[in-house]
Amino acid sequence: MSRSLKKGPYINQRLLNKIKNLGPNSKEVIKVWDRACTITPEMVGFTIGVHNGKQHIPVYIVENMVGHRLGEFSHTRKFVGHGGKMAKTQAKK
């Protein structure tokens, strides 16, 4: 469910302050546990390490990501694959 329009998007102010202090073209990865934070145009061009529950996944922010949440780009589950005899024979090839 989306957030109320009168409240506006949720943006972590501490994260925005860190980005403003870094300056443009910084290669430093900013570690973030806040997966619900909305990506803003100020974040474009930075690499943010989004926590997936186990580790920080580096996410490079581009223009197409504006308006999405940080958690959408750091998956929490890893698909290993379906098992069975047929899958094992195909994996060997």
**CATH superfamily name of the domain at 13-77?**
Ribosomal protein S19/S15
Question: What is the distance, rounded to the nearest whole angstrom, between the alpha carbons of the first and last residues?
Answer: 44 Å
| Largest beta-sheet details | 3 strands, mixed
Structural class: alpha+beta
Topology:
Elements: H1 13-22, E1 29-32, E2 47-51, E3 56-60, H2 85-92
Parallel strand pairs: 1-2
Antiparallel strand pairs: 2-3
Give your account of this protein's structure:
- By secondary structure, the chain is of the alpha+beta class.
- It has a domain at 13-77: Ribosomal protein S19/S15 (30s Ribosomal Protein S19, Chain A, 2-Layer Sandwich).
- Helix content is 19%, strand content 15%.
- The chain has two helices and three strands; from the N terminus they run H-E-E-E-H.
- The chain has helices at 13-22, 85-92; strands at 29-32, 47-51, 56-60.
- It has a three-stranded mixed sheet, covered by helices on one side.
- The longest helix has 10 residues, at 13-22.
- The radius of gyration is 18 Å and the shape is elongated.
- The chain starts with 12 loop residues before the first helix and ends with a helix.
- The model has no long low-confidence stretch (mean pLDDT 91).
Brief write-up:
The chain is of the alpha+beta class. The model has no long low-confidence stretch (mean pLDDT 91).
Main features:
single chain; 93 residues; alpha+beta; 30s Ribosomal Protein S19, Chain A; three-stranded mixed sheet; 2 helices; 3 strands
